[in-house]
Fold this protein.
Amino acid sequence: MHDGWLGGSGTRAFAELIRARRSVRDFLPDPVPPDLLDAVLADASWAPSWSNTQPYRVAVASGTLKDRLEAALCERFDAATKAKQGGMLGKLRLLVTRKGLPDGDYPTTFDYPEDLLPRRRATGFGLYELLGIARSDAAARNRQLRRNFEFFGAPTAMFIFVHEGLREFSVLDAGVFLQTLMLSAHARGLATCAEGALATWAGPVRELFDVPPHQKLICGVSIGYASPHPVNRYNPGRGNPRELLIAPRAIAEAAVPTGARRPP
Ligand SMILES: Cc1cc2nc3c(=O)[nH]c(=O)nc-3n(C[C@H](O)[C@H](O)[C@H](O)COP(=O)(O)O)c2cc1C
């Protein structure tokens, strides 16, 4: 029996680390020391990728850069919210003025697949319940949604881009990178929230960063130190891991070659 590379207690600590990481939605304003951020990025760079191509890039915004991005994104969020509230006329204005119209590389709002809706709803309702936001309270829900574009108060926001030339596989690789980054941050005392919402508008980040050609904005991450706000206690849990398994089809005994049959 192999003990594993980390040894018994190390393996248990690793399993705990994975389970204890949470999406943090309220940060302290304290800045992240640059060397700590570098260490997290260095860890994340060890994520495996398709042919070791590392087909992603990261734009990191702190200080004034972060403030400018926050202001630009919130402006767009407010314009889009106002348009939605304005009914048909509002939507028309959005189309004409284009102020607040999503310009992301990938759409972030679309119809959810029916089978994924229950988990999505349970996660959203659980969060709003914890925050004391009633389902009917659209204003409070909007305020909470807006927090995404305020980076939940984090001192640093990251924007992850993927190379379009590697198609779905660069997105897959970015996911592996993202989890490695979030676990490293958590292990080093930092908190994160991956934010698909931050891919809604790509214009502001393209204006402020020299994004290489073929790189498409897929996701953002807020990073910093968790505040004691109750929202950070939210744990949506997980389904039974067995539910992730795809059952094999029953194979007719006669169709299996004799050599492949299990001994009785
Ligand atoms: C790719 C990705 C995008 C996400 N986008 C958002 C987001 O835009 N806003 C948000 O509040 N949480 C976002 N989350 C956090 C998820 O809601 C969260 O991971 C999930 O509910 C499980 O909770 P946990 O991370 O605390 O375990 C995102 C997570 C991932 C991995």
